[in-house]
Fold:
Amino acid sequence: MNNYDSGIYILELFAKENFLIANNKFNNVTFPKGFYYYIGSAQKNLKSRIYRHLAKQKKIHWHIDFLSTHKSLKISNVFVIPNALKVVEAEIANSFVEYFNAKIIAEGFGNSDTKETKTHLFFKNKQLSNSVFEKYYNRVVVHNK
Structure:
C-alpha cells in the first residue's frame, strides 16, 4: 500500500450469508448476504486506519468494526482517494445510491460524526465492477483467507 497520510477510502465487504450484529442501534436489522460498501475517511494515518479495518481481532470502536470483525464477512477490496478532504466522504456517500443504484440497509451506519449523510454503508446484491472504481480511486487489493 502506498504511504498516503490522508484520504477517503471505500471498503468492499462480502457477506456469504445473512447476518445480525450486536449493536443496540442496529440489533433489529437483518443484513442480507451480498456486497457492502463502506465510505470512510482518515485525515491522518490513513494506512494505519485501513490496516485496523483489515484486522479481525480488535476492540469494537466504530460501527464498521461490527462488520469487519464478523465471521460471515470479509473485506475483499479497499479503494483509496489519496489526500482527499473529509468533505469528499460526504459527497461520495450522498451520491452512492443514485450513482451505483445501491441500497441503504441501516440508516445512520457510520455517519455519527455528520448530519450531511443518511449512512456510510451501502448494499448491492452483486459486486460493483472494479473498473467503475478504478476510474476514480486507487485500488488496493486485499487478500483475505
